Amino acid sequence: MDLLNLDTLSVAKNLLGYTFIHECEAGKTAGIIVETEAYLRDDPACHAYRKKSVRNGPMFGKAGTIYVYQIYGMHFCINISTNQVDIGEAVLIRSLEPTEGLELMEERRLTHVKLSQMKSKDLCSGPGKLVQAMGIHKQMNDWHILDSDLKIIPPQTRLADHEIISTTRIGITQGVDLLYRFYVKGNEYVSRK
Q1: How far apart, in Å, are the Cα atoms of 152 and each of 1, 41, 53, 87, 146?
Q2: Distance between CA 60 and CA 35 in Å, rounded?
Q3: H/E/C letters for each residue in 82-111?
Q4: Angle formed by the axes of helices 102-109 and 127-134, nearest 10°
Q5: For 40-63, what is each residue's pLDDT tens digit?
Q6: What are the residue ranges spanned by the domains of the chain?
Q7: Phi, psi of 131 (to 5 degrees)
Q8: What pLDDT digit, counting tens, does each position of 160-182 carry?
Q9: Residue 149 phi/psi, 5° resolution?
Q10: What CATH number has the domain spanning 2-184?
């Protein structure tokens, strides 16, 4: 896949518009990637900044390796590694615009949110929410995006540069000024503008 041959910032930007798919026994869920964040090896906010560990090992795998990790002791996030083996870099998938399997997504999210509080735009508008809605779990850690039940499909037409916003990342305390977050301009499914 040509996307995985790009540098990490380019992957983060170019993933916008791709369709992220999970097929499993429960059914198929899919959504268009509308927000990402890049994490580079020399970035103090990157899990791979200090050294390779058991937790961040998938970040050092071949480009396309899935890295699923827990934050705040309760939510999981999904990243895709983006560099050569032994260079720890990845892109966090932050938000999706749901396109398929919305009922299944809602069912999965209802275990975490009351029905009266949920709107369709809230199904996948954040990394923890999209992991719940897409049925992603810790056992998917170290899978590969090209040979697993998780897939990314390129859009028929790439987004133009003027349709993409580049800004600072969310929820970090280091590397806060780096413009490593990308989102689709005007898309209501983005976690935060």
Answers
A1: 10, 24, 27, 22, 8
A2: 23
A3: CCCCCCCCEEEEEEEEEEECHHHHHHHHCC
A4: 110
A5: 999 999 999 988 988 899 999 999
A6: 2-184
A7: -65, -45
A8: 999 999 999 999 999 999 999 99
A9: -75, -5
A10: 3.10.300.10
